[in-house]
């Protein structure tokens, strides 16, 4: 009995080509040895559609810029049965295939020169949402890092943003969970194909994200979560957003590679200041020292810096950082400085009680004031003003 691999492949003419057939040939082209992202897009643009690439004569392929080895690989490709099986499985699981000229392909990603020609997407979030923030950081965060991540996303609840991250353990997980808790759509960018889910600890989280967000990857269905694939995942995270927020990362942390991509693509970078003695914040503090990122202490600050407007009835950070008077609410750190001016030192519990700020907000503000050299940390986690203030 003749198999798919043994029988002759008949390519449809361009004018009769269906969307499903063109998707089939686009995926097939990306599976040809030696034909990477750039060649895939170049060849399809040159010949009009992917099926026409496989119909082309060798001399036409050579004239398009590919060498003899690549031309022979295209003409001798015998992986069509595997592509068919892959697409059937993706269809069964509800995964869409997006080509980089499709309307639903994320335009922020399309605009970069090394964008992947194909994306595989499952979910209901808009990949072209008006406001997209990527949240990244260490896989081993402190309690402070988790609290800050949750707080900042809570403060952005009324902003209508889409939260993007990499579904890794740590800050990524905290960001996705916080987004779901506050009914913000969230996208997990995968470093593998849909056959796998890494890390396995996030399977339940990933299922929840499909109801209010989605999962996105550039990798073939069976591609495993091998380490060499994650830089490509990080590149997509960086390009997919308007702004990147780094919560905690070591000086040599992988998050800094994502920041490098984001800066290359012209994205705005924010980071949460951390203690100078905490290695998990060394990368964040280095970004501030190098002036590669803005220090972030509130969701409202992010929205304001990005030039985004709150919805008409939206409530920003002002309502979640209450002081006793409207003037104090404008600059909550001034309220802390005023309290510290009245005493030789205060504990974080005393500052929380007297300022009426949430503990996680207090932690953020104290770290920022410490980095600015305005306060010092004493034994027993007490805080002291470094010098008297003329006014606050």
From TrEMBL:
It comes from the Bacteria. Gene3D superfamilies: 3.40.50.450, Winged helix-like DNA-binding domain superfamily/Winged helix DNA-binding domain (1.10.10.10). Residues 325-381 form the DprA winged helix domain. Transmembrane segments: none annotated. Residues 97-305 form the Smf/DprA SLOG domain. One of its GO terms (biological process) is DNA-mediated transformation. PANTHER family: PROTEIN SMF (PTHR43022). Belongs to the DprA/Smf family. This is DNA processing protein DprA. It comes from Puia dinghuensis.
